[in-house]
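Hi support team,

I'm opening this ticket because the web form for multi-chain structure prediction keeps timing out on my end. I have pasted the exact lines I submitted so you can reproduce it. The total is 579 residues across two entries, so I didn't expect it to be a heavy job. Is there a limit I'm missing, or should I split the entries? Thanks in advance, R.K.
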Amino acid sequence: MINKKDVEYIANLANLKIDEDDKELFTRQLDDILNYVEKLNELDTEGVVPTAYTVPMKNVLREDRVGLSIPREKALANAPDKKDGQFRVPRIISE
Amino acid sequence: MELYDLTIHELKDKLASREISVNELLDSFYKRIGGVEEKVKAYVTLTEKEARESAKELKAEFKGKLAGIPLAIKDNLSTEGIKTTCSSRILENYVPPYDATVVSRLKEAGAITLGKTNMDEFAMGSSTENSGFFPTRNPWDLERAPGGSSGGSAAAVAAGEAAGALGSDTGGSIRQPAAFCGVVGLKPTYGLVSRYGLVAFASSLDQIGPITKDVEDAAILLNVIAGHDPMDSTSVKMEIPDYTRFLKEDVQGMKIGLPREYFSMDFAAEVKESVLAGVQRLEEAGAKVEEVNLPSADYALAAYYIIAPAEASSNLARYDGVRYGYRSKKAHDVKEMFTNTRNEGFGDEVKRRIMLGTYALSSGYYDAFYLKAQKVRTMIKEDFDRLFYEYDLLISPTTPTTAFKIGEMTDPLEMYQADIFTVPVNIAGIPAISIPCGFDSNNLPIGLQIMGPHFGEGKIIQAAYTLEQILEIKDRRPELEVSV
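Hello R.K., no limit was hit. The queue was backed up. Here is the completed structure from your submission:
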């Protein structure tokens, strides 16, 4: 159902990299799981409305009012790299 | 019995009558932790300094429903100023800038945090072996797994390393470890307890709940954590009853269903016997028991392994090494930084589930997998709704086996089967409890699961309490050698 090429493609979408040695194992394991979930096709779901949340709820609205927020220093406290009160990342646009 | 062996309600009484002080209580727990933690390894972080501080602050005004009660908190619940790792390398040094709503509620009630407990990385697993740090061991048999993902919380309570604990349950992560460790675990209705500050795994399934030594303690903790929170848009606005009012020995006339599909599955004979014996005791106490049909239950696990990974793949996209957590040193550009960070930071099971979810949501597969699973979810929910129209509660085993050995489960799909009885509950959003109902021939605890309709926690507590009183096994504790 799923092959090594698919695994490489999905890994790229998910910003993951599977080591060459593990690719075969991952492919087999994911294939096993996907084959198992195939059993959902035994059920006829024609006309069934999908459920995202099981407890019925309407749109949850609140007043648009300024509240408390986390101060900048606190929000930056866990940053692996920061500069001038901002998160710093490697260069995005090359020269 | 030592103080660390006592239940929350027993400790409350002793504290209220000033028979013991909060510091004496903390002494007892930290001494116990010092004696057994090397073997059990339930905690990722111990917070003794903070706990002693909290005890000092309490002295001035000794009130609150949980004043002075020492608890353990699963390490996916945000604690301000205290590391919250989700047992993942990627969050190894993450210190949240705020408290989860359940954590602030516990604080307001006067509870004291002993430490943060180990878990399967990002709550993905059923044995706590997927922890990015170390496996936790089952206090009943150190060669065996405590279950998971809240294995640290369940093991801590069973080993007397905490009076009670909080866990989270996405597919059985409170109930399954509770069953393996011989303690009580309650997964509340989706929406009853705020998820604000719970590090998200599968947002439409996750729910926080108590792990305790008995049913009364579960009711006491639920009273504190349940209730509407504007910070969680899925938290339900409703009147919360006092759950301790349901602590009465009475199942007279209660209608209980036993789903045929569950009991006809191939699982451990000793588990089946013990659960059916428990059901019989309830019948003798006046409950009406009948076999019922839950035809879609067999498909819940398959739907779960689409829905949960799909939501996880989206939720875990945030771990990119930019705002918090681990960042790979090996990176020349941003894409490489993202990829190497995630590759080095996540364990195999987390990667597997992200991949599975990404696949199920990817172009061309969305309808076949995700939409299909959401439709099956409707069918499962309707099956339960139909049964609860006629029956008060449903009973099943919590797990198909008792605790398995560490390292025994090597195949992911095989491990997933450990949650076969617990997953349908999350898919339907209903509440369920696991309570100990007996022991197998290896002296390992067996768990019995009681399921109820949405917001039916009261009835669940009543039936669980009744059975607990009849069985008289709740004071049994594992024998652990204490190292000095």
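A quick check on our side: The radius of gyration of chain B is 21 Å. Let us know if the file doesn't open in your viewer.
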